[in-house]
Every structure is written in C-alpha cells, then in structure tokens.
C-alpha cells in the first residue's frame, strides 16, 4: 500500500515544467515568421513573447493534474492571474492596447461564467460572442462582495482600476480552457514539427529539440533578471536537427513498387537492356533488371524533388559504384583479352560480372543499402554507358548524347 505524501510537491513541479514546455510549444508557430521575437519565463509573466523589449503576449499558465478543476468566478487561478495583469495595467495603461493577455489552463471554463465570456472569438458558435463588458461587471460584483481573505489583494488590485481600465484590461484577455496537460504537450510539439522534420521523424525531432530546450531555458532562468531565448535560436536548432535527420536516413518509398506493363515494355530499347542482351542474359534477368531500374530511378527522382539529398550526393554514390566495378571489369578484360568479341566465353564472363551486381554489390547510399537501389543504379549507369558487362560495351553501345 502506498501512503499519501502530504508534503509532496509533484503538482507544483508539474506546473513549472508545464510552463516551460508550453513556452516551447507556443514558440514554434513564430519560427519562420519573426526570428527577432524572444520568449521568456518568469521575466514579464509566466511566459512572455516580446519584440525589442515590448511585450506581444503575456501568458499565465495553470496546470491541474486532475482536470475536474473549474475556472469559476471565484477561482483562485482566475483572480491570481487578474491581480498580475491589473497591477501591470495600473503601471502601464497602454498594455491592453498592444498586448495579448492569455490565461492557459487545463481547467474547465463554465458556460456563463466571467471566464466563459472571455474565450477567443473563434470558440463561440453562431449568435454568441465575447463579452468583456459583462465579464467586468460580474467580476466587479465578486470583488466587492467576496470575503475570501486569500484573494483580498487580487480583489483590491482589480478594483483599484477605474471601470474603463477594467473593461480595457478584460478586452485584451483571452481564456483558453481545457488545454493539454503536461504529458500531452509532446504530441502538440510534434504536430508543429511535422512542418520542419523529414517525413516520419517528428517524434525524433521533438526529442532532439527538447533535449536542447531544457538546458537552454534553465540557463535563461538562472540569469538575474531572467533572460530570454530568441526565436532565431530555435529556428537555427531546428535547421540543425533537420539536417542531422536527413543525414541519418532517407525514406524508402519504392522498394516494392512495380512498373506497369507499358513501362516495362518501354525499356526494351534502353541501353541497359541492350547491354544485358549482349552478354546473353535470360528474359527473367532482364525483367528483374527493368524492375530494379524503375524502382531506383523513381526513388532517386523523389529524393531529388523533395530536396532530401544533398548536392552531389547521388553523383558521389555513382562514383563509388563505378570505382567498385572498374577493377572487376579490368580483371575480366585481362582474362579475355584475345577472345573474339562475339564468342560465348566473353558472354559468360560478362554474365559473371553482372552476377556480382545482382547478388553482392551492396554499397550504402547514406544508410540505405537496398538491393533495388544498388542494382537499379548500376542499370542507370549502364544506360549511360558508364559501366558495362561485355568487354567491348563502349564500342558496341557508344556514349549517349
């Protein structure tokens, strides 16, 4: 049996972690929009976005491990938030006109409550809309009537504002209820990263980004006063992550793709097929060659279209294939130097050389060593008459224009 720890700080710790993770999630939409914007924790607010020292967004975050919490008109979460903003507005009445004030909470927002009147405009259905004026009236009544001693300072801060300033303050406030809990924010971050990470790599990109984010935001927090992280830093880190993931692996899309009958037939006149005929390859081997050529050509074209490969990467791979082929071709030529061009021995030697490509030639394209990619790429080279299986292939087939 597990005893309840009355001194546990789990919920408080989760709240601080939520604040930092939410800051990262909310930073991602700024990437590629304005790299000069900065995000901070506990500097201007729980989370703040600012540009040239002027706040764009001031955010309060409230995390509840149990989602049954409600943001009622007497909610401590609501009033503690209003206190922070009311005191800020009293010092600088221009804040509501130039800054978005958002309360982000995992709690429910009851319909008809003051918080329910301050949702984002997009949250209301037909015939309903935000009503900051009524929210101000309702909250003023609560502040005047409540005997809650713990919220006395918050009530006082709100009432210290003249009615017009209370209305102005609430016109800038947006309440976002039922937000993701701490453990759910990873999925939201990954959703944003689908725009930046290679296909299928959003989860890995999120792990790499958070691995950088936590020490970075900690170093900002221990500054006095707390420092900020430029969106440009996050953008640069995302570029690094994207390049690392690109280098690490490539998506394989055509390993099991087959050409149509029309495409297969169209290859009959290609030089890579003519090269196979010159060494007496069977129909079955030529059929497999057409399939591998199709798959390799389609895969390499897709990588190029999607900018998944670096400049010169395909050329370097082809150079590797040629350099691996050259000594084997040289041995075959030396062994059959005096054989007539059309003799069976020379064809058999060419088949043996091609058999090495079919069964053993597996060289990595980054981390991909798939059979179709190697064999198909050799056929692409054979079609350009850059490699061949017959001793006299260059003479027989010449160079392509």
Q: Could you list some keywords that capture this structure?
A:
401 residues, alpha/beta, six-stranded mixed β-sheet, 16 helices, rod-shaped
Mind telling me the C-alpha Rg? 34 Å
Strand content: 5-15%
Specify the biggest β-sheet.
Answer: 6 strands, mixed
Helix content: 40-55%
Layout of helices and strands:
Layout: H1 10-27, E1 38-41, E2 47-51, E3 54-62, H2 76-91, H3 95-98, E4 100-105, H4 132-145, H5 152-159, H6 163-171, E5 173-176, H7 185-193, H8 202-221, E6 228-230, H9 231-248, H10 261-266, H11 271-278, H12 283-305, H13 313-335, H14 344-359, H15 371-383, H16 393-397
Parallel strand pairs: 3-4, 4-5
Antiparallel strand pairs: 1-2, 1-6, 2-3
Q: How would you portray this structure in words?
A:
- 52% of the residues lie in helices and 8% in strands.
- It is of the alpha/beta class and 401 residues long.
- It has a 6-stranded mixed β-sheet with strand order 5-4-3-2-1-6, with helices on both faces.
- It is rod-shaped, with a radius of gyration of 34 Å.
- The mean pLDDT is 92.
């Amino acid at each position: 049996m597990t005893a309840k720890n009355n001194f546990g700080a789990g919920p408080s710790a989760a709240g601080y972690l939520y604040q930092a993770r939410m800051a990262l999630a909310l930073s991602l939409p700024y990437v590629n929009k304005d790299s000069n914007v900065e995000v901070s924790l506990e500097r201007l607010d729980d989370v703040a976005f600012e540009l040239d020292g002027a706040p764009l967004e001031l955010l309060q975050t409230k995390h509840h491990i149990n989602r049954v919490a409600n943001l009622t008109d007497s909610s401590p979460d609501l009033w503690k938030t209003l206190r922070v903003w009311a005191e800020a507005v009293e010092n600088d009445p221009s804040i509501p006109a130039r800054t978005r004030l958002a309360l982000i909470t995992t709690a429910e927002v009851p319909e008809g409550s003051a918080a329910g009147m301050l949702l984002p405009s997009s949250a209301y259905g037909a015939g309903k809309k935000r009503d900051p004026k009524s929210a101000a009236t309702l909250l003023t009544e609560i502040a005047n009537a409540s005997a809650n001693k713990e919220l006395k300072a918050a009530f006082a801060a709100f009432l210290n504002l003249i009615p017009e300033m209370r209305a102005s303050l609430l016109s800038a406030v947006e309440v976002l209820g039922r937000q993701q809990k701490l453990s759910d924010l990873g999925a939201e971050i990954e959703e944003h990263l689908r725009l930046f990470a290679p296909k299928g790599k959003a989860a890995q990109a999120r792990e790499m980004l958070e691995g950088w984010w936590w020490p970075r935001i900690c170093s900002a927090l221990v500054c006095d006063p707390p420092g900020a992280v430029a969106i440009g830093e996050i953008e640069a880190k995302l570029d690094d992550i994207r390049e690392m993931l690109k280098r690490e692996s490539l998506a394989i899309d055509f390993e099991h793709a087959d050409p149509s009958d029309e495409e297969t037939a169209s290859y009959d006149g290609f030089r890579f097929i003519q090269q196979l005929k010159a060494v007496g390859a069977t129909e079955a081997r030529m059929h497999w060659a057409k399939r591998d050529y199709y798959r390799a050509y389609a895969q390499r074209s897709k990588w190029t279209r999607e900018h998944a490969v670096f400049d010169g990467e395909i050329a370097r791979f082809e150079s590797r294939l040629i350099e691996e082929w050259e000594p084997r071709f040289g041995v075959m030529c030396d062994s059959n130097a005096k054989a007539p061009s059309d003799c069976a021995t020379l064809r058999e030697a060419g088949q043996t050389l091609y058999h090495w490509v079919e069964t053993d030639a597996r060289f990595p394209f980054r981390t991909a060593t798939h059979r179709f990619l190697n064999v198909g790429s050799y056929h692409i080279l054979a079609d350009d008459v850059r490699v061949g299986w017959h001793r006299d292939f260059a003479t027989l087939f010449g160079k392509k224009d």
